[in-house]
Amino acid sequence: MGKKVKKESETPCKETFEPLPVEGKTPATVVLLLSCPEEDILVKACEAIHTFAEKGDENKVSLLGLGALEPLCQLITHNNKLIRRNAFMALGIMATNGDIKSALKKIDVIPSIIDKLSLEEDIVVHDFATLCLASLSVDFACKVKISDNNGLPPLIQLLSSPDPDVKKNSLEIIFNLVQDHQSRLALHELGGIPPLLELLKSDFPVIQHLALKTLQNVTTDTDTCNTFREEQGFEKLMDILSNMDFHDLHAEALQVVANCLSDSKSLQVIHKGGGLTRLMEFVLTPNLPEIQSNAVKCIARVAQSSENRKLLHEQNVEKVLVELLSVADISVKTATCQAVSIMSFHLASKDSFRDLNGIPAVVQLLNNESLKLKEAATQALSNLTHGNQLNAFAAYEAGGDKILVQQLYGSCRRTVANSADALGNMAGQEVIRCSILSHGAIQALVEPLQSTDTQVLINTTLCLTVLACDTEARAELQSAGGLHPLVNLLRSYHKEVLHHACLAINVCASDVNAAVEMCQFGALEMLQEINLSVNRRSRFSELAMISLLNFNLSVKYSLTSHLASTDIISDGFYDAGKVRYVLLKLMCNRGHLKECELIYKYKKKLLKNKKDDKQKNETRAESPTEKPWKMMDDVSLQLLVNEAKKTILPLSDEREQCAALARLVSEAMGGAVEMEKLHEFPWVLHLSELKFQLQSNVVPIGLISRGIYCHRALLFKCLADCIGMSCTLERGEYSQAWNEVLLFNGNPSMNERSSQPYRYIVDLMHQPGSLGVKSTIFLYEM
Hints:
This protein has 45 helices and eight strands.
């Protein structure tokens, strides 16, 4: 047999090519090579992509479009260290681009990157792996993924890397992570504070800045702050602050100091170690304005706690702050005023600022053109004068009242609110109040009353409440048009605004003219609505309502159907029935109301206004020839007053006085009427005849000789008030009304008097002079 010849294609080839140089002139070619199994080619391809990507964002985006991202993410886990290193270099550079960061978020690459952060890995891998994570860690979802994949421990280890870039990148990632509370706690538990403090010694400012910014975040936690203190962190920060070569770090260092001192226990420990003294010395050391301003802000932050304020007071912080009020820089002055404002919550500090002449210094700052400084200075004066009359007087002596009034016209709402509050604090003293008013404070407060800012409204109404206790001030407020915006505040649903508006109205209502005008603006109706609301009513709204009613008992009786024994009928009283408040002249001329009773102080007139049919009244109201209504003399009423004084006052027994007055009223109003014959009593016809005779629906009550319950009760109240006998006036339904009196049981001449008075209703209609217990008295319903 012949020898078989094996086909060439079936013979395995043991030979290999000599290494071939591969040249890729286009990015697309190089990206294709990333899928090559040849390790040498992969090394060169990754290196070429890194070099190409370094040249700019346009190249990075081009590589993204060519599909370079996914193969690179696979190659960072390659067994070949050189391939792995070059792949990380390419990926790290590309990840700095925003489009590529967005694409990487869709690829689950973070676990692979974290896996290569071990200390055994090449330092170049650390560099570009952390660079990649630094770019991704600004995104919230990526931060969560880094934390979930236990990325924090290796990052803390890399803070001690010999490579500054690795330190910087790792620190940047950690800074982004500790924005989250859980990561801050984790950093402390994993021992991250000591390496952070060590980085403060770095020769690279960027690392120092990042370390301070990270410490600023983590020291907000109490346990972390304790560890920071135990690791001599405060001393290291003070060393930085004491070294002017590190002035660029001072602002951030002060933020960390403020965190450490905010905790009272830490402050105590630091104080015992001389830390507070060093801080005070640093604050007073001439420095860049920004640094000095931040130092004062640090003190202000520390002073947020009452315990800390006490300790700062013991360190004479007030002296330091008063000195800083005279520096040239506005930002330092502003920060100082803010610190003074906060320290003023400590009572002893208020006195210290006054004793150190700090108040005149603050007042002078109000003349500065800086709006921020004015705001801070007015806030300081507001707090300094709150509850402290001596400080208020010191501000007055420095001319503060005049300047504060001027600030009410300012454009800054906070300044206006602070100024109003300070003026309100000062106005409690009469001499200061007079001075404030002389500078036009009332006029200046009118515009703030129309503000939309809640605090402005609260402080303005509070200031107005204090100033309006002066009679001239109330008149000025009315003439300046301030009552209308004040009444409009009753529409507010803000609790404090409403409360303070009610207080101001309560004070203004002591002036009759002001009260009338507020009623015309609808104050009574609004207060009625407020007092019917479960959510809006308060003792302040009730007080305002009572004050408005007390200025005019006619309105009070009209709205409440009740006059207390302390409500003495006097000049201008009338009964308008249960209706909206309208001026008497309008009622008489236009017939707006069904009934009206009037008592005039000097001529003692009591009138009854009975409304005719609607059409007749409308015709009269529109008639241009109608004569104006004039009040008529009520001689009969005056005779009754004289008779009561003559015959009833001499009686010694209260019961006898009450019975005698009841009989006098009954006789004047037609005598006793039996209950069964009440319907025959011609009081309606009698009133109609009087109106016809007088050609007016206003009838003097002295002319009424046939009066029903409401007429008799009103006459009884009028006469009782004239002779000093105590009684109430109550209105019921229809034409019902009655009087209640408080009487003691027993014989006073024999010392047989009960300890508690009893309330009785006086019968004026059926058995005049008899008294009935309120719960058993029977009133006939018309």
